[in-house]
């Protein structure tokens, strides 16, 4: 059985998908980009600030499912410029305990929705 997870503290979906799906004890989030959920505006001034907005959006979705970053077992990071990896990784890493950090892949892609620089999705387990 699947349960749709939604929160107004993260951007609303802009297509035929949900913010997250809880199946049993496993949460699958949709990719988050740096949309400010309060203003609907993209936060693209600086890659670190952009990544922080992405992580805050993920945090809001996790909280809506009564989870935290400690529940995350897998992350997928899509970036438009591998040259920004260090900056993105610095912000991303600040949300996790390094000893219990999730599995992850980071992939450079040609283009992301709304021409953002980073998109992240996670899988979490209660």
From TrEMBL:
GO CC annotations, alphabetized: cytosol
Alphabetical list of Gene3D superfamilies matching this protein: RutC-like
Alphabetized GO MF terms: deaminase activity
InterPro entries according to UniProt: RidA, RutC-like_sf, YjgF/YER057c/UK114
Pfam families: Ribonuc_L-PSP
Entries under PANTHER family matching the protein: 2-IMINOBUTANOATE/2-IMINOPROPANOATE DEAMINASE RIDA (PTHR11803), PROTEIN HMF1-RELATED (PTHR11803:SF58)
Family from the record: Belongs to the RutC family.
Protein name per Swiss-Prot or TrEMBL: RidA family protein
Species whose genome carries this gene: Aestuariibaculum marinum
Taxonomic lineage: Bacteria, Pseudomonadati, Bacteroidota, Flavobacteriia, Flavobacteriales
């Amino acid at each position: 059985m699947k349960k749709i997870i939604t929160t107004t503290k993260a951007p609303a979906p802009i297509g035929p998908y949900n913010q997250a799906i809880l199946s049993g004890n496993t949460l699958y989030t949709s990719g988050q980009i740096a949309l400010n959920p309060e203003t609907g505006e993209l936060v693209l001034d600086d890659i670190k600030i952009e990544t922080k907005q992405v992580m805050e959006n993920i945090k809001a979705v996790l909280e809506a499912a009564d989870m935290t970053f400690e529940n995350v077992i897998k992350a997928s990071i899509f970036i438009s410029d591998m040259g920004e990896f260090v900056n993105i990784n610095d912000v991303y890493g600040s949300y996790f305990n390094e000893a219990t950090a999730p599995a992850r892949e980071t992939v450079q892609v040609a283009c992301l929705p709304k021409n953002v620089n980073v998109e992240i999705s996670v899988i979490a387990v209660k």
